Amino acid sequence: MAFDIEMIKKVYENMAERVDKARDLVGRPLTLSEKILYSHLWEGTPSQAFTRGKDYVDFAPDRVACQDATAQMALLQFMHAGKAKVAVPTTVHCDHLIQAKVDAKTDLKRAKEQSNEVFDFLSSISNKYGIGFWKPGAGIIHQVVLENYAFPGGMMIGTDSHTVNAGGLGMLAIGVGGADAVDVMSGMAWELKFPKLIGVKLTGKLSGWTAPKDVILKVAGILTVKGGTGAVVEYFGEGATAMSCTGKGTICNMGAEIGATTSTFGYDDSMDRYLRATNRAEVADAANTVKEYLTGDAEVYANPEQYFDQVIEINLSELEPHLNGPFTPDLATPISKMREEAEKNNWPLQIQVGLIGSCTNSSYEDISRSASVAKQVSEKKLKTKAEFTITPGSEVVRYTIERDGFIDTFDKMGGTVFANACGPCIGMWDREGAEKEERNTIVHSFNRNFSKRADGNPNTLAFVGSPELVTALAIAGDLGFNPITDKLINEDGEEVMLDEPTGNELPPKGFDAEDPGYQAPAADGSSVQIIVSPTSERLELLAPFQPWNGENIMGAKLLIKAFGKCTTDHISMAGPWLRFRGHLDNISNNMLIGAVNAFNQKTNNVKNQLTGEYDAVPATARAYKAAGVPTIVVGDHNYGEGSSREHAAMEPRHLGVKAVLVKSFARIHETNLKKQGMLALTFSNEADYDLIQEDDTFNFIDLKEFAPGKALTLQVVHADGTVDTIVANHSYNEGQIGWFVAGSALNLIAAAGAEATA
Ligand code: MIC
Ligand code: SF4
Predict the structure, then answer these.
(1) How far is the CA of 450 from the centre of ligand 2 (A)?
(2) Which of these, 496, 209, 500, 499, lies nearest to 381 by C-alpha position?
(3) Catalytic one among 18, 40, 96, 369?
(4) pLDDT band at residue 758, thresholds of 50, 70 and 90?
(5) Which atom of ligand 1 is closest in space to residue 447's alpha carbon?
(6) Which end of the chain has fewer CB within 10 Å, C or N?
(7) Hey, is 698 helix, strand or coil?
(8) Candidate list 63, 80, 322, 448, residue with the active-site label
(9) Is 272's C-beta closer than 6 angstroms to any atom of ligand 1?
C-alpha cells in the first residue's frame, strides 16, 4: 500500500497544466528540474518566469522528513508555531542515535535504553501532530523514504542534507535546517533561490567493477565540494536510463558532497520497477499517466548546452572505479592510480576496516553485488585481511538480504552486521582503540569522510568507494589493490583473481520484513501530552532569541578566525555530542571545537581578549556573553559544508555570536544562520580575510540601513588602534531581514500563531 496516494495523484492532476504554462512563460523546452520547480510554486499555476541563481521563489513541497538528531530541534521549534497538526505529510525516523559496537541486536537494545527519553519524546510529539514515526531499527531516513514515500515529479524537504537521495526516484528532494521544515509543517511557503542547473550526460554503460557510486565520485572530483552550490544536478542519457533506481539514489545522495541543492533523474522503467517492487504499483500507474512531464523535454537532452548552465559528460563504459579521500569527498583517485598516490602522499596502505551500507549504497543491488565478492573468500580459499562491517539501510533490506543468504555470506568472510542505522557513518562507532589516535586507513561506501567523522580519531584516513570495491579492498587489506588487474595469494599459496561482482537489481523473491517499524499517528492528537523534564540533560524547551535592538553592533570581538575547511562537523561535532541534539545549552559546549584557529593552528583554543588567556571556544564565548560583549566568527570558503544540522547556527546564536563573516557559505548553513537571526556575511574582497587579526574588534557602522542588495560596512579595529574598513556582502531579501529584526524566523511564525489564536 502506498502512503499518501491521494496527495500524489493530486500532484499529477495539476502537473500538465502547470508545466505547459511554465513552458509558455519561459518560452523554451524545459528540464525536469524546472518542471518540478514550476509545478510546486506556492502560487499554484505559474504566472512568471524566474531567473536562475537570482530570484527568491516560494515553493509548496509535498512532504517533509526528519531524522531523530535533527527532528528534536525541528519539533521543539514547531511546538511554538501554534498548530494542531502538520500541514503536509511528515515523518520522523530514528536512525542517528544508535551506536555501532557489538552487533545489531545488542546495539539496538542499548540505544533504546540510553536514548529512551528522546525516542519517547519523538514518538509522542509525532503522535500529537500527525507525524508518521519510524522506530529505532526501522532504518535510515533516506532508504526508508526511497522505499515508502519518494515519488517521481514530487518535491520534498528533509532535515538532513542527504534527503537528496530521493532524486533516485525522480524527485526534487532538498536538505534543509529544522526551521525551514517548521515553515512547511506550519502550512507556510518554503523559500529557495531559484537554482541554477547542471546537466550530467551519461553515455555508455556501467560494467565490471564500476558502479553508480563511481559516477558521483568522478563528478565530485570534477566539481569539488562547492561546485554544485546553488544548483540542481540533472542526470540524463542512455547511461542514466540503463541504471537501477537505487543506483540513481546513490548518485543523488552523494550530490550533497558537491554542495548541490539536489540532484535528480527523469522517470524511467527502472523507477517503475522499483515502485512496483516496493508495493507501490498505484504510484507507478499514476506516474505513467503523466510520464512525459516527469522527465526533461527531448530537445533539452538533445542539446543540453542550450538549457543548462553547465554540462558534464561522462562515458560510463570508460569510467574506472574510484576512491575519494582522505578527509574530503572530492579528492578522487581512480583505483589504478591509488598505489602511486598513496605512496606519494604517505597514506598508510594497510586497510584496517572496510565498512559498507549507510543511507546510500545499502540497496539490495549493492548488497548482492558485495556478497558476490564476499563469497569468493571461501570459494578461492582467501582470508579477509581487514575487519568488515555492514550497516543495512532499512529493516526491509536487512530482512530480505538475510532471507536470501547474504548475511550468512558476510558472516563467513568475517563481517559484522550492525543495526539498521547511521552508526559508523556519523561517529556512532565505538571503535576499539580509536582513542589511541593511531594513523590508519579505512575504506567505506558512505558519503562523507571529514576528519574524525567515523571514529573520532583525527588520524583515521577514510576513503570512499563503491560497496563492491570496499568489499574487495577489505579482503585484500591493501589500499593499492586493484581488483581489475591484481592477484591475491590464497591460503594454498596460489595466485587468484577476484571475479567481477554480479548481483540483482531487485530481489527475485520480492522484498519482505516481519515488522518494518512504522507507527502511524493518532487521528486526533489533541490530548497527547508532550513532557520535557526541566532537569533533563537531553531535552530542553526553547526560549525565543532576543529581537534586534535596532542599533549598530559596536565593539564585537573576534571569537575565532577559522582556518581552512570548516564543515558543520567542525562547528557542531556529531558522535558523542548527538546525545545533546535536543538541548541547546548542553550541545553549545561543542561549538566550533573542531575548527582550527588560524593564529595558532590549534583546535578549541582561542584567545579571550578580555583576559588575554587562551581557552576552549565555547568557554570563551560564554565569557564574552557573560560580559555582554558581542562576538563574531570569521571563516574561509564553503563554511558550513556538510550537514543540515541547525545546531551549527543555533549554538553561536545562543552563545552571543552576532555575525559569521566568511569567503563563501554552503547553502543550508547560510540559510540556517539567517533563520536563527544571525548575520551571515561574505567578504566582498576575499583577501580581507588576511587582514583579520587575533585581537580585532568589529563595528557594524551601517547596520541600521540593512537592506536587500546593499553591502554592509565593517570597521575592523586592530589592537594597535589602526582601522581597516571592509565591505561585507550579504544575500538577505526583505523577508529574511525581517527574521534578523525579529530575532529569528520562528519568532515571526510564533507571533503570527499567537495573533491567530488571540
Ligand atoms: C550527516 O550525514 O552529516 C548527518 C548526520 O546525517 C547530517 C544531519 C545531522 O547532523 O543530524 C546531515 O547530513 O544533514
Ligand atoms: Fe546517516 Fe551517514 Fe546517511 Fe547522514 S550520511 S543520514 S549520518 S548514514
Answers:
(1) 13
(2) 496
(3) 96
(4) low
(5) 2
(6) C
(7) strand
(8) 448
(9) no
Distance (angstroms) between ligand 1 centre and the Cα of 168 equals 19
Is 570's C-beta closer than 6 angstroms to any atom of ligand 1?
no
H or E segment to which residue 13 belongs? helix 5-26
pLDDT of residue 668: 97
pTM of the model: 0.97
Active site residue 696: no
pLDDT computed for residue 753 by the predictor: 76
Q: How far is it, in rounded angstroms, from Cα 283 to Cα 757?
A: 38
Question: What gap in Å lies between CA 413 and CA 438, rounded to an integer?
Answer: 26
Q: What is the 3-state secondary structure (H, E, C) of 383-451?
A: CCCCEEEEECCEHHHHHHHHHCCHHHHHHHCCEEECCCCCHHHHCCECCCCHHHCCCEEEEECCCCCCC
Alpha-carbon distance of 277 to 507, in angstroms, equals 8
Determine if ligand 1 sits within 6 Å of the CB of residue 160.
Answer: yes
Helix residue spans in 198-318 (DSSP H) = 212-223, 238-241, 245-253, 269-277, 281-288, 298-302
Instruction: Write the burial class of residue 721 (CB in 10 Å: 0-12 exposed, 13-18 middle, 19+ buried).
Output: exposed
Q: What is the DSSP letter of 100?
A: B
309 is known as an active-site residue? no
- The answer to whether the Cα torsion of 190, 193, 194, 195 is positive or negative is negative
Rg (CA), the chain: 25
pLDDT at 216: 98
User: By C-alpha distance, which of 279, 507, 474 is closest to 402?
Assistant: 507
Q: How many CA atoms lie within 13 A of 286 on its CB side?
A: 22
Sign of CA dihedral 373, 377, 378, 381: positive
Give the residue-averaged pLDDT of 461-488: 98
Distance CA 621, CA 567 (A): 19
pLDDT averaged over the chain? 97
> Do residues 201 and 314 lie in contact, with contact meaning Cβ atoms separated by under 8 Å?
yes
State the alpha helices, DSSP H only, in 163-264.
Answer: 178-185, 212-223, 238-241, 245-253
Question: What per-residue confidence (pLDDT) applies to 149?
Answer: 98
Atom of ligand 1 nearest to the CA of 256: 13
pLDDT tens digits for range 124-170: 999 999 999 999 999 999 999 999 999 999 999 999 999 999 999 99
CA distances from 442 to 348, 363, 468, 490 (A): 10, 21, 15, 22
Residue 407 has pLDDT above 80, yes or no: yes
Q: Residue 495: enclosing H or E segment and its boundaries?
A: strand 495-496
Mean pLDDT over 689-697 rounds to 98
Q: Judge if the upstream peptide bond of residue 326 is cis by omega within 30 degrees of 0.
A: yes
Q: Find, among 316, 187, 162, 329, the residue nearest to 239 by Cα.
A: 316
The residue whose C-alpha atom lies closest to atom 7 belonging to ligand 1 is: 643
> Residue 757 has what pLDDT?
67
594-614 tens-digit pLDDT: 999 999 999 999 999 999 999
Q: Which atom of ligand 1 is nearest to the CA of 572?
A: 10
Sheet holding 310-315, edge to edge: 262-265, 231-236, 196-203, 310-315
Cross-sheet strand order for the sheet of 518-519:
172-175, 155-158, 63-67, 90-93, 132-134, 518-519
Instruction: Decide: 567 in ligand 1 pocket, CB within 6 A.
Output: no
